[in-house]
Amino acid sequence: MHLAVLTLLLFIRDVSGVDRTPLRPRVEKANVLFFVTNECPISNSFAHEMARICADYKSKDIGCSLVYVDPQLTDEAASKHAAEYGHGEYPKIVDRRHDLVKATGVTITPESAVVNRSGKVVYRGRIDDSIAALGQPRRPVQHADLRDALDAIVDGKPVPNPITKALGCYIADFAALGLTSPATR
């Protein structure tokens, strides 16, 4: 079977025990996957903006999922972290085998990937440019790249900049480190 077909068929269980298909939005126009880790301060600093984006676009048929990239993180720890940082009621997933990381091509946390109904990644990159460089915040934000992409999708237009450079913490290759065993639940 072709890799693209396998990707679309991917079911992954969220921290609440619900099977999800984040690469195949069923009702929404698109699904935003926010890739994070609980140990990245840059990722944590974007938590409220992620929640605002999900709240702002929910009524516009855009879904959201929070994807933790550390395969050793327990579901309980992910749930606790999400609550502590103000994430909303959208699904939280621990991508233990990096299936979602591989399918979307993300390499940094925080990084977002937007998947349309066809299962195509139509945007991948930063949430906005509030970080000019590591350790250098930018205020005010000049480019709200993810919001621009979502506005284009809502309006039925092509995403103007489908790839932007995310700044943050690199996603480790846990398989190379021998750390792929699932966390205890």
Describe this structure in words.
This protein is α+β, with helices and mostly antiparallel strands and 185 residues long. The protein has one domain (25-170): Glutaredoxin, CATH 3.40.30. It contains six helices and eleven strands. It has helices at 3-8, 41-45, 47-58, 75-84, 99-104, 145-154; strands at 12-13, 19-20, 30-36, 62-68, 92-94, 108-109, 111-116, 121-125, 131-133, 136-137, 169-170. The strands form four sheets. It has a five-stranded mixed sheet. Strands 1-2 form a two-stranded antiparallel ribbon. A hairpin with a 2-residue loop joins strand 9 and strand 10 (136-137). The radius of gyration is 15 Å and the shape is globular. The model is unreliable at 181-185 (pLDDT under 50).
Defining key terms:
5-stranded mixed beta sheet, disordered C terminus, 11 strands, globular, 185 residues, two-stranded antiparallel ribbon, Glutaredoxin, alpha+beta
